[in-house]
Amino acid sequence: MPNPPAPPAQNPVDIAREAFRRLATRRIAPTPDAYRDIYDEIAGIPKPTLAPASAPVAPANGAAEVVLGDFATQLTDTPGELAEYGRRLNRAVKVRDWEAYARALSQLVEKHLRRGIPPGVTYGMESKDTVLLRELLSRTLAFALASLLPASPKLASEAESLGAAVKIAHGEAALQEIATRLKELCFQIELHNGDAGEQQELLLRLFKLLLENVSELLDDDSWMRGQIEAVQELISGPIDTRALEDVTRSLKDVIYKQGQLKHNLSDVRTTVKNMMMTFIDRLGSVAASTGDYHDKLGGFSERIRNAGDITELNEVLDQVLSETRQAQAEALASRDRMLAAHREVQEAESRIKELEAKLQHMSELVREDQLTGTLNRRGLDDVFERESARADRRNTPLCVALLDLDNFKKLNDTYGHLAGDNALRHLAKVVKATLRSIDVIARFGGEEFLIMLPETPVEAAVLTMTRLQRELTRHFFMHDNEKLLITFSAGVALRLPNEDQASLLARVDRAMYKAKQSGKNRVEVASDS
Ligand SMILES: Nc1nc2c(ncn2[C@@H]2O[C@H](COP(=O)(O)OP(=O)(O)OP(=O)(O)O)[C@@H](O)[C@H]2O)c(=O)[nH]1
């Protein structure tokens, strides 16, 4: 940007200083002519009109020479290194060696006036890099940082305002102010984050305390314990979204099932209550009818005692027999009814026990395979639904692997069914220890397991399965102090976009079958169709 003309009232030394500053700013070599031009410009002296060739030459730069000499002398009087420059300039003026004067001046400018200005930067115009950096910083503040601070609108708005200010801040003072604000903002964010972390920690502690107390209060409702334990386990480690989703789903499932069971249970309880009432009713009516019978018999004995003739006695006896038969029939019917009611009560009681036992294990049973602790088919369906939706949404690869233990029947036959069960447990344990935490293993059938590998391309899934095979050869399955080697054959398939579970499982099953056919203890990749 051109400098504004200086007011003509300045004294010559000021004008000389300004002239040198402008020479440096404009990066013009400080020759006497250049210096004079700028000096005149500042002092407001009009440029001389060109004289005709024949006109006498003006006296050679006399005024400029004086000023250059003055400047050199003044410089000599300054402390430090500048004085040496003054002396060099003075020598040059004395012998009128303007080349030497220009060199010394140029070095002076380079060394002292341009110090602190980064290379590539020119006055009044920024380099491309600076413009780019300024833009990046502005965006980082106004968009990225501000969007990370939704919980503190004040800090977010300061980040936005700083972003806007960075765009237009020029000059040292303005940038200094930006730096101060930026420092303050960072400090506030640090404080704020500390607060939020502390609050979260406090809430978690409170929640844990509550859960412990609730858990202690549960005597009869022990079916709740499974749910509480799941939540306790979740909050004991670092909380991640997947784990949260898992527990939420599992809880929803459990609560739904429990709702159904509780409903059944209360139905059965009502039935038992009704039957007990009936039972007591019957007992009452038996007592009543036998009571009547005794009363009547008492009446008959009175009539028998007072009977005058045989005909009268016969009549009484007929009535006695008839009453006795009636009482007997009633007693028998009542006994049958009571036995039936008793049976019903017993059945209802055992049904209640069964339902209660089911309810008690519900939390663990809903999604887990009891033998291996892996997911069961229902759990697998849930996770498949979740992971395939995630893969479609994020456009990330999702692989599945189907594992089938080799020669498992032989193992069962040789070492027994219990050894077979333990071998399945061992496999599940090695799989869990070898795979990433986001991978999921489910028991698919007898000795078949399905592993889901989110965010994994097919090559990596194959490598994972071969790594698992290696791990199994390193971690033997021990049975009665005997090391048994378990191997498996596996199919691996990459889920196609929007492919459903049935189609994917059919493909991976074919691949696993191929692995069995081609010699077992192998991994085969499924074809796309
Ligand atoms: N111990 C135990 N055995 C099981 C379980 N589920 C299935 N099995 C047995 O696993 C065996 C599977 O036998 P096959 O299908 O012939 O398979 P395999 O012997 O492994 O033969 P290949 O798969 O061809 O290597 C059967 O004997 C089943 O009884 C279980 O939960 N525990």
TrEMBL record:
CDD domains: GGDEF (cd01949). GO terms for molecular function: diguanylate cyclase activity. InterPro entries: Diguanylate_Cyclase, GGDEF_dom, Nucleotide_cyclase, Rev_trsase/Diguanyl_cyclase. It holds the Pfam family GGDEF. Keywords: Coiled coil. It catalyses: 2 GTP = 3',3'-c-di-GMP + 2 diphosphate. Its EC number is 2.7.7.65. The keyword Coiled coil applies. Residues 396-528 form the GGDEF domain. Residues 310-372 form a coiled coil. PROSITE patterns: GGDEF. This is diguanylate cyclase. It comes from Massilia litorea.
